[in-house]
Recover the amino acids of this structure.
């Protein structure tokens, strides 16, 4: 039980020491806690929200049982360490789908709540927590609170997006959505700059529940913000299904000493990705549509041992256009392009989580190989723009934002502190509260 | 392979194995001594298999309960196709050395109760003319070592007993499978430092068990490389082996 290892988050940065305490039964009390603890789901957060340097982490993957599922209503209750992929494997054949899913299916229910994750349908469905009917919160004093939108709702709103700091979520009950078909009707459209994106977006959002765009961060000037718009909807019943060719997963077997993602490969990739011919409208298996990266297992290793930074921000509608332009120009000027830049407009629904990230506006997600100070300086420059625009940066993907920025982005943080469990803490929290 | 009885169903390896059988639509009768754990696993398997799951909590150390237990299971399932015997304890070797009762208790749970169950199951399968008995032994049962010979002796007895049973029932459409796992990351081994290539996850063992049943294997090491490790260990002359600290 007492082993020191260094599990990492998805960004492979920071690399730290913490002690692992595997959990197996939801009914068990928490192990005796000598040091601050934190729940660790599947480590799909990029930065340090799931890390607890020099402390203990409660590994929740052993809490992986289904508790109840009603195929008539689509209400599912399961232990908090169950992966979304496991839920999909169970419910898709029975005509149900997750109401909200992030861009990887390898996250746990507990992790999805603690970051109040969002998906391509935010503009119609809001974030994950809006479809959570209830969960149980286990506090270090042994109290078990059943929380929901109408029960212990202050604890519900603190724990949703609460970065694991309010205690351990043991089980979760969610509402699924009905689907008639496991396939997705997907549509792709190129756009050659940001203005075109906004024009397309109004049209597509009205017609499709799932929308997202990839943009090329390596270009500037007239083609600044060119990219590909991708929209989709669950296929109707009886849509003609192409014969499936089973997709095989590929695993990156080792971490190269240096990043294979560099200026040259980013430029090349972006050019190719933009120009690659693709069907405008096609039936797509749902994993390929929602989880294109899951196909390449452990792709994060491509960034080498120093790892990488993710940066996801949201900018309120009023300043979106201008701030986006500024951000893309600052990135292009820095020469540190991002391979996977993703743009989406959030809708106006909010889950009410005190620290939930999604809010009305445009969200942009980027990743940068860790080049040390040079990369941090660029991200600090991006933060200037976001603060000016009254936006926010996503803690689930952060390993470097400054404490004053965090408090600016999440003004309800001081109210939130009342709900933190006295025995819980995280590397992220100590970092943003230190300054 | 539709009706499956699992003895020690709360074991991590057994649970992972049950999930794989559940995906193929199996029906279960689960037996374990902890009622809460057992209920959680039964609900989970019901959802995964879309079938009713029977369960019963019983301490399998109670040998005199075995005959009635097996007839309840047979009745509920309407015949048992596969019985998986998975329960076990890893006793504290140092403590056992100083305590005969502790040593015998570990041998009772790990060997005698398994032998009791295997005998009753085999006889009932013999009458019916079909059935599969799978029991989890261990690589620790292949050679006695200072660090865990109480556990190892019990597992070794199980291995030898099943070998005889297999010999007795050969040609009768009854399959006796001995599973010999190496190090597996489960609650049983919570006290170990789990680093390195020798550690397997319960689901890897589960996959091996399902394959062993499908392919009608007799004895199988899991993961496979343990077969070769044990081959080497078994060939070290005793004069040398007794001085090693493995
Ligand atoms: C390829 C990829 C694509 C992604 N796409 C998206 C996306 O589209 N939208 C989005 O919102 N996010 C996205 N993410 C981020 C990811 O969805 C979140 O970081 C998610 O929270 C990770 O869940 P996890 O189970 O791995 O939790 P971890 O990363 O292990 O932990 C996340 C947080 O949850 C807490 N936690 C975990 N389990 C519990 C529990 N049982 N009780 C209390 N607290 C708990 C942890 O303490 C931590 O604070 C993506 C990540 C990847 C790698
Ligand atoms: N883990 C390894 O490295 C390893 C290696 C080789 C072989 N094995 C063998 O694999 C099998 C499964 O073990 P595991 O690794 O899955 O560990 P585990 O999760 O600890 O499972 C052992 C299970 O046996 C149950 N049990 C013990 N005594 C019992 C009794 N008298 N009556 C009913 N149930 C009883 C325990 O119940 P409770 O939960 O109520 O205690 C526990 O659920 C065991 O036979 C073990 O010896 C394990």
């Amino acid at each position: 039980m007492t082993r020191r290892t260094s599990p990492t988050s998805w960004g492979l940065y920071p690399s730290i020491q913490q002690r692992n305490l595997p959990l197996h039964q939801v009914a068990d009390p928490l192990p005796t806690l000598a040091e601050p603890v934190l729940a660790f789901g599947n480590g799909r957060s990029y930065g340090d929200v799931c890390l607890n340097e020099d402390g203990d982490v409660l590994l929740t993957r052993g809490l992986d049982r289904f508790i109840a599922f009603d195929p008539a209503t689509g209400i599912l209750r399961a232990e908090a360490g169950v992966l979304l992929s496991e839920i999909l494997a169970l419910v898709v054949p029975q005509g149900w789908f997750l109401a909200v899913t992030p861009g990887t299916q390898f996250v746990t229910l507990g992790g999805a709540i603690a970051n109040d994750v969002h998906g391509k349908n935010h503009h119609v469905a809001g974030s994950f927590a809006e479809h959570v009917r209830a969960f149980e919160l286990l506090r270090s004093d042994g109290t078990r609170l059943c929380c929901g939108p109408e029960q212990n709702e202050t604890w519900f709103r603190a724990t949703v997006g609460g970065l694991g700091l309010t205690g351990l979520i043991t089980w979760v009950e969610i509402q699924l959505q009905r689907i008639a078909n496991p396939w997705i009707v997907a549509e792709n459209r190129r756009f050659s700059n940001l203005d075109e994106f906004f024009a397309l977006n109004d049209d597509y959002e009205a017609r499709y529940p799932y929308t997202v765009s990839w943009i090329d961060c390596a270009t500037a000037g007239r083609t600044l913000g060119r990219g590909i718009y991708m929209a989709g909807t669950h296929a109707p019943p009886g849509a003609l299904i192409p014969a499936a060719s089973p997709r095989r997963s590929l695993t990156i077997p080792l971490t190269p000493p240096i990043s294979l993602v560099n200026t040259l490969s980013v430029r090349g990739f972006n050019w190719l990705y933009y120009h690659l011919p693709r069907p405008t409208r096609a039936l797509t298996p749902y994993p390929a549509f929602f989880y294109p990266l899951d196909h390449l297992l452990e792709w994060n290793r491509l960034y080498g041992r120093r790892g990488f930074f993710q940066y996801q921000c949201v900018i309120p509608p009023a300043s979106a256009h201008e701030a986006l332009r500024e951000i893309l120009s600052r990135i292009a000027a820095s020469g540190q392009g991002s391979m996977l830049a993703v743009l989406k407009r959030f809708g106006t629904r909010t889950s009410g989580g005190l620290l939930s990230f999604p809010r009305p506006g445009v969200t942009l997600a980027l990743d940068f190989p860790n080049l040390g100070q040079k990369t941090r300086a660029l991200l600090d420059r991006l933060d200037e723009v976001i603060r000016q625009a009254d936006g926010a940066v996503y803690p689930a993907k952060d390993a470097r934002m400054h404490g004053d920025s965090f408090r600016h982005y999440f003004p309800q943080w001081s109210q939130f502190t009342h709900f933190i469990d006295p025995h819980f803490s995280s590397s992220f929290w100590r970092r943003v509260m230190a300054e | 392979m539709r009706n499956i009885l699992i003895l020690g169903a709360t074991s991590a390896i057994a649970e992972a194995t049950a999930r794989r059988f559940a995906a193929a639509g199996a029906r279960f009768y689960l037996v374990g001594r902890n009622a809460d754990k057992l209920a959680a696993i039964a609900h989970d398997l019901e959802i995964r298999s879309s079938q009713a799951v029977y369960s019963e909590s019983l301490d399998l150390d109670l040998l005199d309960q075995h005959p009635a237990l097996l007839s309840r299971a047979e009745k509920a399932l309407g015949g048992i196709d596969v019985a998986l015997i998975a329960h076990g304890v890893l006793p504290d070797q140092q403590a056992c050395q100083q305590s005969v009762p502790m040593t015998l208790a570990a041998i009772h749970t790990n060997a005698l109760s398994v032998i009791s169950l295997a005998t009753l199951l085999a006889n009932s399968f013999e009458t019916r003319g079909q059935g599969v008995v799978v029991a989890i032994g261990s690589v620790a049962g292949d050679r006695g070592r200072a660090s865990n010979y109480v556990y190892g002796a019990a597992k070794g007895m199980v291995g030898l007993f099943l070998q005889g049973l297999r010999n007795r029932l050969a040609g009768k459409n009854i399959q006796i499978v001995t599973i010999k796992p190496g190090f597996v990351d489960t609650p049983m081994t919570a006290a170990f430092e789990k680093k390195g290539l020798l550690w397997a996850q319960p689901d890897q063992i589960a996959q091996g068990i399902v394959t062993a049943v499908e392919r009608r294997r007799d004895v199988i090491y899991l993961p496979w490389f343990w077969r070769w490790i044990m081959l080497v260990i078994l060939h070290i002359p005793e004069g040398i082996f007794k001085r090693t600290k493995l």
Notes: Chain B has a mean pLDDT of 96.
